[in-house]
Amino acid sequence: MISQQLNDLITRIGPDTAAGAVHRKYWQPAALTDELPDAVAGEPPMLPVNLLGERLVLIRDAAGALSLATREAAADEPPAHHPARADIKLVAGGPTYPVVEKNGICFAYLGGGDAPAFPNFDCFRAPESHVFAFKGLWQCNWLQALEIGIDPGHASFLHRFLQDEDPSDGYGKQFRDKAANTDMPITQVLREYPRPEIKVEETDFGLKITALRHMDGDLTHVRVTNQIFPSAICIPMSREMIITQWHVPIDDENCYWYTMFTSFQNPVDKAVMRAQRLKEHSLPTYAPLKNRANNYHYDPAEQKSLTYTGMGLDINVHDQWAVEGMGPIQDRTREHLGRGDAAIIRYRRMLRKAIKELETGQAERLPMQDRQATSQLVGPLSNDAITGSEDWLAASLAADQERRSAAPWDAHI
């Protein structure tokens, strides 16, 4: 457990907060490219954006360049509100921020001074044909949204499927594939081996998290995921795809997850993946159709025979229920962390260290602030594999290299 003062320190992200200052030193997703409207009567496209506690508007000028400007808004404006174009009023002389488009997401930098470089991660260097971007609204603080993503153990419980689907029908869905080097569905692995050994290593970009599920027959399931500082994760979706997901604060009590689905070998079927996700979300806010108001469509009959949660097959709904159920801001003064929370503990230490370094004028010591070094970062490795228990590390690396070698784009590391 931690004190209320410390919980406030690491969760609050407004313009005058310590954790907010850290977030502003990094490129943050501000909108999907698809969200930008067309120009109206010769006026530039404008999209309202609420980001890091600020009311902003995304603007594309006549030359095609993007920027974020400050706009006027009522103090009680809903977090995902989209006012009409005629109601958008810019703040005269207000700050503007640079914006860069990357494979379907518009990233903004709110930190002042020189913006950091983008790492050469797979989601950024893959061609547009191999990346699909989407987002969703969660009504909770960004930190609890991130922390569920760096907890390898939760998948064996929260995402427990009592029946294993045919992996050939699982395109575009997580935990529907078979683990590399085996015919065992990932859902079966997670269900039958729920208590992984967790190893956490600090990296130049954040954390590498390895979950080892020791299986019968002297086999080990190796699942490698990553925390990308300050608020993103990179995890395997299938043998073909990885997920890079940012947990972006709208304000202290709401956040968006932005995801890039990156395919190594084949182009992404964007129409299929978008249709899958629009069955669960409403536009233009990208709010989930299953939510607290309708009890996340909980079905006790389903819970008996199909899923642990009884809330359908979309794992985003499971995660949403878990993180929103903690309240707008999780009360960490009452928690009791254990060995399974190794990555969460290590991440909080990283965040507190970054806060201290920024407050003492040592911003260059934050992860990925060296432009040259950051631009040369590749990967990260994110995959599932089953192998002999003694050579799990080599097998994990080999599985990663195998799919990279089949990519028609430069995926080498």
Automatic annotation (TrEMBL):
The UniProt entry, under InterPro entries, shows: LigXa_C
Q: A Pfam family this protein belongs to?
A: LigXa_C
Domain named LigXa-like C-terminal: which ranges?
109-374
- Identify the CDD domains for this entry: RHO_alpha_C_DMO-like
SUPFAM superfamilies documented for this protein: Bet v1-like (SSF55961)
Task: Report the protein name in the record.
Answer: Ring-hydroxylating oxygenase subunit alpha
Lineage, broadest ranks: Bacteria, Pseudomonadati, Pseudomonadota, Alphaproteobacteria, Rhodobacterales
